[in-house]
Design brief:
Layout (H helix, E strand, L loop, with lengths): L4 H19 L3 H7 E11 L2 E6 H9 L10 E9 L3 E10 L2 E12 L2 E14 L5
Parallel strand pairs: 1-6
Antiparallel strand pairs: 1-2, 3-4, 4-5, 5-6
Helix pairs in contact: 1-2, 2-3
């Protein structure tokens, strides 16, 4: 079953909200966007570090928002059967740029972020 235009649009809107919320340290956005069983995994140099929703919200609340336009870009969106979706994007958290792979599920008609697997992808734009 192919994705409906409504589902594609909804997931694209969530990808934009996600990129802006990361850049501007908007924990309030993640409170609603993330599923209660959200799991985040950072992969770097063969090591993995895991956080649940409350630990992730604490990390976001613990930093200051960046000024100016949010710096992020969506590389791809895939919606399968109107029940699951994947978003591949990058987002700057100066001085670094991160590559994120997001997994969404539709729960009671609403898309929720269930998984985030990410890695450091280099320096943020303007960095060396």
């Amino acid at each position: 079953m192919s994705a409906s235009p409504d589902d594609l649009h909804a997931v694209a809107d969530l990808a934009k909200a996600y990129g802006e919320a990361v850049y501007y340290a908007r924990a309030d956005v993640f409170e609603d966007l993330c599923h209660d069983r959200f799991q985040m995994t950072h992969v770097e140099d063969g090591k993995t570090v895991f956080w649940d929703k409350s630990a992730y919200l604490e990390r976001v609340r613990g930093r200051e928002p960046f000024a100016g336009a949010a710096s992020f870009g969506v590389s791809g969106i895939d919606v399968a059967g109107g029940e699951i979706a994947r978003v591949h994007l990058w987002v700057d958290v100066p001085p670094l740029r991160y590559e994120d792979h997001l997994g969404f599920v539709k729960v009671d008609g609403a898309w929720k972020l269930l998984t985030k697997v990410f890695r450091t992808a280099g320096h943020a734009s303007g960095g060396s």
